[in-house]
Amino acid sequence: xxxxxxxxxxxxxxxxxxxxxxxxxxxxxxxxxxxxxxxxxxxxxxxxxxxxxxxxxxxxxxxxxxxxxxxxxxxxxxxxxxxxxxxxxxxxxxxxxxxxxxxxxxxxxxxxxxxxxxxxxxxxxxxxxxxxxxxxxxxxxxxxxxxxxxxxxxxxxxxxxxxxxxxxxxxxxxxxxxxxxxxxxxxxxxxxxxxxxxxxxxxxxxxxxxxxxxxxxxxxxxxxxxxxxxxxxxxxxxxxxxxxxxxxxxxxxxxxxxxxxxxxxxxxxxxxxxxxxxxxxxxxxxxxxxxxxxxxxxxxxxxxxxxxxxxxxxxxxxxxxxxxxxxxxxxxxxxxxxxxxxxxxxxxxxxxxxxxxxxxxxxxxxxxxxxxxxxxxxxxxxxxxxxxxxxxxxxxxxxxxxxxxxxxxxxxxxxxxxxxxxxxxxxxxxxxxxxxxxxxxxxxxxxxxxxxxxxxxxxxxxxxxxxxxxxx
Length: 472
Description:
Helix content: 40-55%
CATH class of the largest domain: Alpha Beta
Number of domains: 3
Oligomer: single chain
Number of strands: 11
Strand content: 5-15%
Distance between the termini: 62 Å
Radius of gyration: 24 Å
Order of helices and strands: HHHHHEHHEHEHEHEEEHHEEHEEH
Shape: globular
CATH architecture of the largest domain: 3-Layer(aba) Sandwich
Structural class: alpha/beta
């Protein structure tokens, strides 16, 4: 029989094995390919039917390490530039191991005085880091999607109250459609949050003024004026995923204040621009918003999953997400989860370890690396940069001489597929102004100049290989 209680003596050996395996993995992370050959096949080996009798902890962990590590992307390594994916600082790594050891449910101080108190400290420190008012409140979440959901739930409640309705108690009965405005930079996580809130993905009016889908400020003002004082929600974007560009947040704040709208800022990674005077101007005006969100597992470099939702007036969170039962203590943290991992432990530890100056230095180093890559693209004849580089993303494509414009999209799409399979660097493709492009995002604490140079090297190499194959 493999009742865990009867096999409890395995614990020390299992933990020692896990530490040794993790230490070896992390020791090779800087030099390891992002994706190993045969990754999919390795993971397939973990499938099969549920065992009737288990083999114990050490056997399970051994199989997980031998097969599972081979099937995992090195997403916490220095050359994973796909999406906007950070790594894990040493302090956050150790703290997260301790969080698993303590296994706290961070929903109430009765359940975990440590986790709840650290969450309060972490929110306070994050507000300070981002130079947001100390009077604001907030909550840790699973990531930007849940943070957007949390903040926009508060916006929904505010909007309904302006119509004299408690939407959380009564629902939408008798309410009109919610006017929601944004630019073409609005992220799918925000529209997904609107869908989960019952407002609908299609409720956002995208007011784009050019091919890059930048905000048409004049159209926004006309739309707000036409509401004749009725409440609306504005979604500003601090960091477009294709280029790192920002909506004109200061101008949006002015309009929100003039017309009585709720201003929500999605700063999943761009909020970190506020850490350095070199980029803080991009995010000027964020402090005038009603709600702001960001991710922890991006530029903060804490483990998945972690995000933050900040609110000027946090009271609506308790009204929306509060819940009561005879057995509950009554001090539950206001957020969408009732069962919550103690994310605050890793957030507190990494901020305690590196402080404001450490994070400022990392962000500035990443800005330098993005500019270095942009210069490399500009000086490489086969490459073409498609957008300015205001922050940490470089949008470019392979454009060799002699290839017609009409063939470039298919060519770059094929290179993109080959690039991921190649595994030396991990960079995804997108569409920018209708063109297929690469958009590496630099947010990992481990990334160096050699890593970003490799992006250009590999794209050119694979591009030339694609061209040679097409000529055969």
